[in-house]
Amino acid sequence: MRVALIHYWLLGMRGGEKVLEALCRMYPEADIFTLFYDPAHVSATIRAHRVQASWLNPARRLYRSLLPLCPMALESFDLRDYDLIVSSESGPAKGVITRSDSRHVCYCHTPMRYLWDLYPAYSREWTPSLAKRLAMIPLTNYLRLWDFASAARVDEFAANSENVRRRIAHVWRRDARVIYPPVDVDKFRWEPPKDYLLMVSEMVAYKQLAYAVRLFATTGRKLVIVGDGPEYGTLRSLAGPTIEFCGRVPDEELHQLYARARALIVPGEEDFGIATVEALASGKPIIALRRGGSVEIVPADIPSGVLYSEPTEAALEKALFEFETMEALVNPHQLQSRAARFSEPVFRREMRLLLEETSTLERPSVVRERERTRAALQG
After folding, report:
1. In the chain, what are the domains?
2. CA 107 to CA 179: how far, in whole Å?
3. Which residue ranges of the chain lie beneath pLDDT 70?
4. For residue 283, which of 108, 154, 190, 249 is within the disulfide window of CB 3.0 to 4.6 Å?
C-alpha cells in the first residue's frame, strides 16, 4: 500500500506539524505533498521523507496572500499511485484529487476559520478599507463554495477535539471521529514554581492575547510569553516591565519554562490546545477561557486551575485571584497522569483503527449513509 500525506504548508513547527510528524512515524515510507515547503524550518523527521511542494512554492514568503490560488495548486498534485491519502487540514489540504478506489482520511485541526466563523474579524484585519473588503467578497464566496464541495472528496474525517467535530458538522455537514492530537508528554517535567505565569501561543489576533498583556502590565504580575507572529509589535507596545517576550525557543528551554511556571494562561478559544496539554504534562495548572479545547483538556474533578467565562481583563483578573486561593491544592502528579490520554501511542492506536476501518470496502461513512437512507424509506 502506497501512502501519501498531505499537509497545508511546511513553514514552521507548530501543532499541525507535530501531528504530521506522528503520521510520518506511522508511515515511514510515505511521501508528503504540501503547498509551501521550507526545509530549514521543519524537523528532521519530516525532512527524511520525500516532500513535494506545489508550483506556488517559489513565492512561499507571500503564502498568506496566495490563498485564492491554493485550490488549483492542490488539485495539480498527481496522486494516482497512492492507495491511502491522509490529509492534515486547517487550510485547504483536503481538496486534493484522488483515485476513486483509493481512501482519503482527513485529520482536521479546524475548518478554515478565516473563511467561516472568524471571517468578519479577518476581513477587517487583512483589508481595513471598505473598498478592499467589497472586492474580497466574491473571492471569499468562491473559496467557501470550493471548501464545502471539496469536503465531499474525503471518505472519513477525524477531528482533533469535540469542539472541532461540532465545527465540521456545522460547516461541512459531515460526521467526524474525535482523535486527540499527539503530545510527547513524557518529555515534560515538574519543578518547583518560580514567580511567573506563562503564555505559549502564536501571536495572531484571534488568540486574544492583548487583553491578558494589558492586565499583567497593569497589575505588575510577572508574565513570560513564548511565541511569535504578526501581533508581536502590538503586544510589545502594550507590555510593561514585568512582561518578558522570549520569541520562539528550543524545546529544552520551553520544557524548562513550563516546569518552573506557576500556571499557563490561555486567553483565547483554542481549537484543541497542545500548549494546555504540555502544561498538564509539566504538572502545571491552567487558567483559561472556558471555550474550545480547554474545556475538554482541563480536568474538572481535581484542582487543576480556573476556567473563566469572558475574554476580558476583569474576568481574567477574577480568575487569577481564584487561582491564587487554590494554588496550594494542586497536585502535580495528578495533572501529569491526566495528560497521558493525549500521548502519541494513544493517537497512533486510534488513527490505525480509523484507517483500518476506512481501508475496507464497507467504509463507515457508506454504511451510515445507507442505514440512514433505509430508515428514511421505511419511515
Report:
1. 3-182+345-378 (3.40.50), 185-341 (3.40.50.2000)
2. 9
3. 118-133, 135, 359-379
4. 190
Cα-flanking dihedrals φ and ψ of residue 372, to 5°?
-65, -40
For residue 237, what are the contacts with CB-CB under 8 A and spacing of at least 6? none
CA distance 365 to 371: 10
pLDDT value, residue 123:
61
Q: State the pLDDT at residue 361.
A: 42
In sequence order, which residues have a C-beta less than 8 Å from that of residue 193 and are 6 or more positions away?
260, 261, 262, 284
User: What sign results for the dihedral spanned by CA atoms 102, 108, 114, 119?
Assistant: positive
Is residue 11 within 8 A of residue 36, CB to CB? The reply is yes
Residue 150 grid cell:
471539496
Integer CA distances (angstroms), 106 to 46, 48, 96, 152, 370, in order:
19, 22, 11, 11, 21
- DSSP string computed for 90-115: SSSGGG----TTSEEEEEES-S-TTT
Cβ-proximal residues to 101 (8 Å cutoff; 6+ apart), any chain: none
DSSP, collapsed to helix, strand or coil, labels residue 355 as helix
Single-letter amino acid code for the residue at 5: L
For residues 31 and 298, what is the distance between their CA atoms, to the nearest angstrom?
A: 36
Cell (9 digits) for 280: 498538564
Question: DSSP code of 180?
Answer: P
Q: How many CB atoms lie within 10 A of CB 18?
A: 17
What is the number of H-type helices and E-type strands within the chain? 15, 13
Encode burial over 262-271: b for 16+ CB neighbours within 10 A, e otherwise. Answer: bbbbbbbbbb
